[in-house]
Amino acid sequence: MPTQDQTLNDVLNRYTDTKVKLRREETSTAIHRVLDILEPILKYVNEQDSRFSHEILRAGSYACGLKVSKPDEFDFLVSVKSVPNLVWAKTTHQRFYNINSTGQMYRTTVPLPSPPNGYHFLSFNNNSHDVKPIWREDTKMKLDDDLIPFQVKSYLKGLVTQAIRVYNLRDDVIVNNRTNGPAITLRLRTGKSVSLDLVAQVPDNGRGLPQPTLTQWPRSQLWPPKDKVEEVRATGTDSVPKDNLYWQTSFGRCEKVLINGIDADEGCRKQCLRILKKLREDHWCMNGQGKPALSSYHLKTLLLWECERYPQSSDWSRDKLGERVMGLVQRLKTWTEEKRCPHYFIDSINLFADKYGKLKNAQGLDLAAEKLGEFLDDPQCFLSE
C-alpha cells in the first residue's frame, strides 16, 4: 500500500512530465528563430558602437534550465565593454540632475536623493589613465562623470531599432515601446508568439561582492558548498538599468552559479522550482490585475533560502519531492501573509516592495496567500487538473 508521500511524489512526477517539461523540438525551433533575429541585430549594434558586445549572453530561466511551459520568452544580456574601473558609489558627491517625462535630462538646484538599498551610481574617475577618449567625450550615455542608466538603455534601444530597419527585419520583429524596467523587449511577428528581452549590463570588472553582502553572506557553513561560495565571490555583481537614474546591483550571475550544478547529487531542487513556477502561472497569479504579485524571481529566491535551511543532499533526494514542494509552498505562504520576500544576498531588501519600500501589490499577495493555503489543504486538486 503506497504511503501518502509516495502518492504525492507520483502525482508530482506525472505533473512534471505532462505540464512542466518543455517540448525539445518546439524549444529548439523557438531558440533558432530568436538567434536568427538577434545575431545580426547585435552585430550591427557592435559595428555602430564597439562598446556594446555582440556576444550573445543568455540569462533568465532558459539559461538556468528552469523554463516551464511554452518556449515563448527569452532573456539576454548586452554587455557594455571597455568600461574602466568605475566608482561604485552611494554618496560620493551630490548630483544636480534629473529626467523629465519625455526622457530628457535636465539640471536641477535640488540634489538627487541617495540611491535606495540595492542601487548605486556608476561614476568615471576622469583622473585615471584607464578612461579612454571615447568615454571622456561621450554624451550619449554619460552626464558629467556619471553613466546614466536611462541614457544607456535609450541609446541601445535606438541602435537596435536602426538594426531592424537596416536589415529589413520590420516584418519579422517589432520593438516594444514599453520603457519601464531594465529590458528592451522585441516581439517576433511571424509564427508562434515569442518575445526576447535585451538588458544592458555593466560588468563587475573584478569589483567583487558589495560590502554588505561580504559581511552577511554566506550565513551558513553548510550551504552553499565552499567551492560555490568562492565562485560567487569571484563572479561578483553587475549593474543593470532597472531605474532611470540609479543602477541596480544585479546578482544574476551569482544566482546562476548557485543554480548550475545544484542537483549534482541527483536531487530534486530544480524539479521543485519548475513545479512551483508552473503552479504560479496556472493557479497562483490569475487575478489579472496588473503585474502578478508573485514572480519567477521570487520563487528562485525561495529555493535558495530553502536550500540554506535544508543543506544536506538527503533532504533533496527524489523520494522527498512531495515533502520539499509542500515545505516550499508553506514558506511562500508565510512570506505572502507577512508581505515580505527577503532578497537572498541582501536580506534587508523586500522583493515584494519597490525600491523605496512600498508594497507593489498587497491585494495580489493576499489572493496568492489564499490560493497557497488551498494548495496546502488539497495539493492533488491542483496537480490532477
Could you characterize the architecture of this molecule?
With 385 residues, the protein is α+β, with helices and mostly antiparallel strands. Helix content is 42%, strand content 14%. The chain is built from 13 helices and 13 strands. It has a five-stranded mixed β-sheet. The protein has a four-stranded antiparallel β-sheet with strand order 3-6-13-12, with no helix packed on it. β7 (142-143) and β8 form a beta hairpin. The relative contact order is 0.13. The mean pLDDT is 89.
Beta-strand level of the residues, as a percent range? 5-15%
How far the N terminus sits from the C terminus, by CA atoms, comes to 24 Å
The chain-level mean pLDDT equals 89
Structural class assignment: alpha+beta
Strands, total number:
13
Number of helices: 13
- The unreliable regions are none
Overall, the morphology is globular
Radius of gyration: 22 Å
- Please write the string of helix (H) and strand (E) elements: HHEHEEEEEHEEHEEEHHEEHHHHHH
Helix content: 40-55%
Widest β-sheet, arrangement of strands:
1-2-11-10-9
Major β-sheet, in short? 5 strands, mixed
What's a quick, concise take on this entry?
By secondary structure, the protein is of the alpha+beta class. The chain is built from 13 helices and 13 strands. The chain is globular, with a radius of gyration of 22 Å.
Tell me the layout of helices and strands.
Elements lengths: L3 H17 L3 H25 L8 E3 H4 L9 E7 L7 E3 L7 E3 L5 E3 L11 E5 L9 H4 L5 E2 L2 E2 L1 H18 L6 E3 L7 E6 L5 E8 L9 H6 L9 H10 L2 E3 L6 E4 L1 H8 L9 H16 L11 H14 L11 H18 L23 H16 L1 H5 L2
Parallel strand pairs: 2-11
Antiparallel strand pairs: 1-2, 3-6, 4-5, 6-13, 7-8, 9-10, 10-11, 12-13
Helix pairs in contact: 1-9, 2-5, 7-8, 9-10, 9-11, 11-12
